[in-house]
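RETRY 2/3 - previous attempt timed out on the joint model. Re-submitting the same 769-residue input unchanged.
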Amino acid sequence: MLTTVYALLFYVAFVIFVGGIAYRIWEYKKTPVPLKIPTTPAPTTRVGVLWRMFKEVLFFESLWKSNKWIWIFAQLFHASLWLIIIRHLRYFLQPVPELIALAQPFGKYAGLTFVLGALGLLARRMFVARVRYISAPSDYLMLLLFLGIGISGLMMTFVTRTDVVGVKAFFLGLMTFNWQPLPNSPQLLLHLGLVALWMIIFPFSKLVHAPGVFFSPTRNAVDDPRERFYQSPVLPPIDQVPQE
Amino acid sequence: MSDLEKNAQGVTDELPQEAKEDPLYFNPEPKEGASAHIQSYKAAPEFQEPLGYPGELPPDWKERVLGKMEEMRGKVRSFRLFLDICVKCGACTDKCHYYMGTSDPKNMPVGRQDLLRSVYRRYFTLPGKWFPSLVGARELTEDVLEEWYTYYFQCSECRRCSVFCPYGIDTAEITMAAREILDSVGVGMKYTNEIIGKVFKVGNNLGLPKPALESTLEDLEEEIEEDTGVKVRIPLDEPADILLVTPSADFFAEPHIDGLIGYAKVFHATGAKWTLSSYASEAANFAMFIGSYENMRRIALRIRKAAIDLGVKRIIIGECGHAWRAAYQFLNTLAGPFDFLDPNYPVPQHICEYTWDAIQKGLLKFDKSQNDWIKLTYHDSCNVARASRMGDYPGGQFDIPRNIIKAVCNHYYEMPEGTTREETLCCGGGGGLLTDDLMELRKKGGSPRMKALKHVTEEYGVNKMAAICAICKTQFAKVMPDYGYAVDDIMSVHQLVSNAIILPGSMQEKELMGEDAENAVDAAE
Ligand code: SF4
Ligand code: SF4
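RETRY 2/3 succeeded.
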């Protein structure tokens, strides 16, 4: 019964997650950019823009300029998240690639820094009046969701160990449509339930900042409006405009 | 001590310890509703209609607003994306000069975006439709419209927030969109819309017709001749190689006009064949401020037509911030391609690029000591800094004006880091807010820049500030007196050039040669 519920839940979550993100990307891609609006100084070449994006996405360059505290917590949070995701790939891959096995010890402690980062962000949200003002209930819930996922995960690693072999069998079973029983442990059920919830709300929430940042017209545009003529996709070409 | 000085003093006394250490200190705590009472005059129907907008709020305004939002969501990437991806991290919250000056949280960039985002969520996103209060979504009501009008006209579209946002969210884009939405239901701003109408009718923001322009320019020519003994022309509507398009404030306002004199002298000294156009006698493009692509294009097309009619080879833009953005980032797209112009020059060019180029080629001669009484600092104008470039590398827009200044002035000082270059603070009057009905906001929004200026005055004795923006100049002339400066302590960059330039055959040249001769005699003795 439990296995069926969770299996179906993850199928649904997966479809919404992947389909939703793909839909968002398609949506952003097809929405025209009427005029070129890079925030300058901006790179004058494509390669330069790739470099700008790289620094932005990996090192949060703009955030570094604006606020060191948010930067620290955000980096703790996101860098840990990457490690955690890499570590979790072991539950979906058989045999486990060596690189992922290598990440295992780091991934384990990344759970702690992940929770720390989320707590820092939550504290800012609660105690800095300006940030409190702009926060909706969903902004707090989002952080609580991450904390729930992180803490339930940590409990399984550091408090009561879970039958990880069984978990892996469950996920491999999902992937091959050959369902295997899900080990019954409250932390695990909570952990997986919250993860599924995260996947389901991802495309409908501010979490779309992850794919969205790549489409930001102030960051991804080359600063070359004089060198290269840009035909606006929303304005008729010049020869179709009535001259006054 | 004057009242104004006492005022300034009084404020300093109340400041906490941090304030004394940090010249840019402001109280970061939000005060809700602190600037809710500041609202610009709305446009009467007669100012709305020439721009293609309804004169007043139609009965079906709500459907129209939502329809407009739907349209923009499909047409303008920044609108849809920025409303979606803000994570409410708070990084931008203390970056807006209007927030620094008013403490009203709706003037925090994200607070300003949320005014629109809350409605967008309610009608265009699933969570907002299903759980409005959970995600901060709200119904669209007339009160909301009123609030939009208030706060979207408390943003100078300076893009400072977009520098600091991890996703580059540019509140200026949201503000422009909001103004376009408001205009589409007849809620327009008098100042901007009346001015745009004047450009359509007469050719410039001031509504100066050709004869008035002609006589102004003649007066200027006489003035230059009196000062220098050289006949420097300021041609209007003459066939030429270079079309100069400059903000119309350059024709009558101080210190703008001294800048125009500077351009004329530079063109004269380089032997350029240039002209102004009465048809395109305005570089400013206020349609950008209200986010209207159509009206922006109509204004931009005037420049194209003037260039064709006068048979010029190059287009050069005078000192103006947003006009330089409208020209640099948009002119080509709006009114190009300009394949009939000389391909050896970028279209358009900034007057500072032209002057700096001439300086590098050794075409201009200066007597820097003419500016020795000045201790100068330079204010980077928002749109020049964050929405344009000069020269051929990123950041040239910061260096070229400074290079010119350093070529003509001996005493130059930078304002504190974090208030210059890409992080420059708005003058407080940009984005279509340069109207008397917003004076309180303008003064409050200008206060962070004034603090930075005060700092260099105390530290180095700076007594003048230069800028290359018509709006900045007018705004500072109004705000600086509150801080103990004189009205004319704001200067045009080309005014400094004009002070120092030695035109061939001028009285200044003879004087200098005389001095040189005396010095030579002195040295010989
Ligand atoms: S910095 Fe950007 S993402 Fe953060 S709150 Fe401001 S607009 Fe939103
Ligand atoms: S664009 Fe400038 S004025 Fe507008 S919200 Fe951003 S920082 Fe403030």
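The pocket of iron/sulfur cluster (ligand 1) is lined by residues B 86-92, 109-110, 165-167, 169 (CB under 6 Å). Closing ticket.
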